[in-house]
Write a structure and sequence with these properties.
The complex is a heterodimer of chains A (65) and B (257). With 65 residues, chain A is mostly beta strands. Chain A is built from 1 helix and 5 strands, in the order E-E-H-E-E-E. Chain A has a 5-stranded mixed β-sheet with strand order 2-1-5-3-4, with no helix packed on it. In chain A, a hairpin with a 2-residue loop joins strand 1 and strand 2 (8-11). In chain B, 40% of the residues lie in helices and 14% in strands. Chain B contains 9 helices and 8 strands. In chain B, helix 1 runs parallel beside helix 9. The model of chain B has no long low-confidence stretch (mean pLDDT 96). Classes of the chains: A mainly beta (65), B alpha/beta (257). Strand 5 (55-63) of chain A pairs antiparallel with strand 2 of chain B, so a sheet runs across the interface.
């Protein structure tokens, strides 16, 4: 399945959001996710499935003013 | 010191965490200023580099209250979604709500701001809205559920100080019981001092400290400026007047002409 991860093309054999995050190296990381512009809370990652062409955003704490 | 959504702060300085030369200098700026609030943001994370994880560890070690922002958001939807993501990551209902409406000045889109503030307040967020000194907008933000207002001093990153002292004074007089924070545009400790003299409760700044030649020293200078302004306000300043009034007594002066 091809999808976008933080604006870059990505490919994965998985569909479940939690699996995709693990595969992408986010295990144990403090991150928040949004799929196609909609916030997906931590508790919903196990039940959220990605489809081809979806846009996934994975955000982490960063400097801010 | 006024409380913000029930939280008492150690001093009136809310300090940004961006643009410092190094993480160590950032930490030193917080230490020397005693700032009790750190503003933070959310950005895309790489599963390989994990830069955000190190930054988050640094902020947690500071032992300050975290105020996440929605910087860079230009629509209500973007700001609301970002706020939800920030609440989960940072574990706080506080959100510095920015809905930017214009690129040259980074002036807030006050219509979107009020709408987003209502949505977020209804959802349990404690909103710190980045707004202008417009009293009508301020009233609508309070109606929307905000219990703090954050008018700009000048455009973000400009360092110009308090652009509209009349408007800011009017806002203070109009909302005597609302915690007011000057957010953005400050460049010097004297600007922060002036904000306190006007009766504001805190200032939020970043660039003036981070871009100084010695950020930690500048952070401390801001803290001292705030302290001076706060003390001056409590000391009940004299009323200015148009004409001179001699301070040295005239009675008893020798007749020498």
């Amino acid at each position: 399945m091809k999808f976008m991860l933080n604006g870059r093309p990505q490919e994965s054999a998985y569909h479940k959001l939690s699996d995709i995050l693990t595969e992408a190296g986010f295990d144990g990381a403090v991150v928040a996710t949004a799929l196609n512009g909609v916030f997906i809370p931590v508790g919903a990652r196990e039940t959220t499935e990605l489809s081809a062409g979806d846009a996934l955003e994975v955000l982490a704490p960063m400097q801010g003013g | 010191m006024r409380s913000f959504y029930g939280t008492d702060l150690p001093n009136p300085l809310m300090l940004g965490t961006a643009q410092y030369p190094s993480p160590a200098i950032l930490a030193d700026a917080f230490k020397r200023s005693g700032a009790g609030v750190a503003t933070v943001s959310l950005r895309r994370e790489s599963g390989g580099a994990r830069a955000g994880q190190d930054f988050w560890s640094l902020i947690k070690d500071l032992g300050v209250v975290v105020l996440p922002n929605t910087a860079g958001c230009h629509s209500v939807k973007e700001a609301v979604t970002t706020a939800h993501m920030a609440r989960e990551v940072f574990g706080t209902p506080w959100i510095k709500l920015e809905v930017i409406g214009e690129e040259d000045t980074l002036q807030p889109d006050v219509f979107g701001l009020v709408e987003a503030a209502r949505i977020l307040s209804d959802d349990g967020f404690q909103v710190f809205p980045y707004t202008t000194e417009d009293l009508v907008v301020a009233g609508k933000l309070l109606d929307a559920g905000c219990e703090v207002l954050m008018p700009w001093g000048a455009p973000i990153g400009s360092g110009k100080g308090l652009n509209n002292v009349f408007g800011l004074r009017a806002m203070r007089a109009h909302f005597p019981d609302i915690p007011l924070v000057i957010d953005a545009g400050l460049g010097l400790p004297s600007h922060a001092c002036q904000a306190m003299e006007l009766g504001y409760d805190a200032v939020l700044l970043n660039t003036a400290v981070a871009k100084a030649g010695d950020p930690a020293a500048m952070a401390e200078a801001f803290a001292r400026g705030l302290e001076a302004g706060l003390l001056a306000r409590s000391a009940d300043p004299m009323e200015p007047r148009d004409m001179a009034a001699p301070s040295t007594p005239v009675i008893g002066k020798a007749f020498l002409s």
